[in-house]
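Input record, target 12 of the design panel.
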């Protein structure tokens, strides 16, 4: 009996293309050119003797055979990933102390931890969410292995991940009204805070009068104040809690730059557990932030 072996890489590309809605995005995600991905698809169709995708408008949709392949592909990939996770878990073990600013705990952190647990079930992860200064201090004292932090960094232990757009954030309801004859009410973290300085600097440069209506050491306190209508705040667009919203650009509010995101390791040689966790961390960041 002739046995045809399916290539894991090709299956992963197909599933990624379906998840992201196109082969262009899939090619970027898997680190291949569009032509290389097209060759993969043609090679798979030749092996199976079936057309996997057909043209529909400007895009491609799965054929009946394609739906079957995708269904099995997900199961095959899950088994592959579970096997790799089991082997890595037995070989690695250990623990990781991971710190990050609260912004990323809203939407991304649960996915990251779930991915890390699946990839490395034997690694114990201890997470600390806090302010920049506290996390850096703990990192330097050896109390953290990794720290994911916003802001410009002159430290040699930081790996720049990406630059994220900053945004003015306000409550979903009721809608705030902005009047030029009244100072803009702000809800900000207490100094020192990069986003506090960025907000005040942008408003001053644009000549917009402002007033701090609420200040807190806690980011959760700031979110609650914004939700209560005590003022708007400035953070990254990727960190908005569900009860709040990014304020659409308007002439009253100045446009904002981007803020760098760094992963710091304290300049220490990482353990195997930390190295493995870091790999998974960067992968989930890539997926969530669409790097």
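The sequence produced for target 12 reads:
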């Amino acid at each position: 009996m002739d046995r045809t072996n399916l290539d894991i890489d090709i299956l992963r590309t197909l599933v990624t293309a379906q998840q992201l809605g196109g082969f262009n995005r899939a090619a970027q995600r898997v680190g291949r050119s569009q032509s290389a991905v097209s060759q993969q698809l043609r090679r798979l169709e030749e092996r199976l003797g079936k057309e996997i995708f057909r043209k529909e408008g400007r895009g491609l949709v799965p054929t009946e055979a394609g739906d079957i392949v995708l269904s099995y592909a997900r199961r095959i990939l899950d088994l592959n990933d579970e096997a790799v996770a089991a082997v890595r878990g037995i070989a690695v073990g250990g623990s990781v102390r991971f710190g990050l600013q609260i912004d990323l705990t809203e939407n991304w952190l649960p996915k990251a931890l779930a991915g890390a647990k699946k990839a490395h079930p034997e690694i114990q992860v201890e997470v600390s969410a806090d302010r920049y200064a506290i996390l850096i201090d703990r990192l330097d004292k050896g109390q953290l292995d990794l720290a994911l932090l916003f802001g410009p960094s002159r430290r040699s232990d930081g790996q720049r991940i990406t630059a994220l757009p900053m945004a003015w954030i306000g409550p979903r309801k009721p809608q705030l009204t902005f009047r030029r004859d009244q100072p803009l009410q702000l809800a900000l973290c207490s100094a020192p805070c990069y986003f506090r300085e960025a907000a005040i600097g942008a408003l001053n440069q644009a000549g917009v009068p402002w007033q701090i209506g609420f200040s807190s050491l806690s980011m959760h306190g700031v979110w609650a104040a914004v939700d209560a209508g005590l003022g708007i705040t400035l953070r990254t667009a990727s960190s908005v809690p569900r009860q709040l919203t990014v304020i659409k650009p308007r002439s009253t509010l100045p446009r904002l730059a981007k803020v760098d995101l760094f992963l710091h390791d304290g300049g220490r040689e990482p353990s195997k557990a930390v190295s493995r966790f870091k790999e998974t961390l960067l992968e989930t960041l890539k997926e969530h932030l669409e790097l």
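The chain has nine helices and eleven strands.
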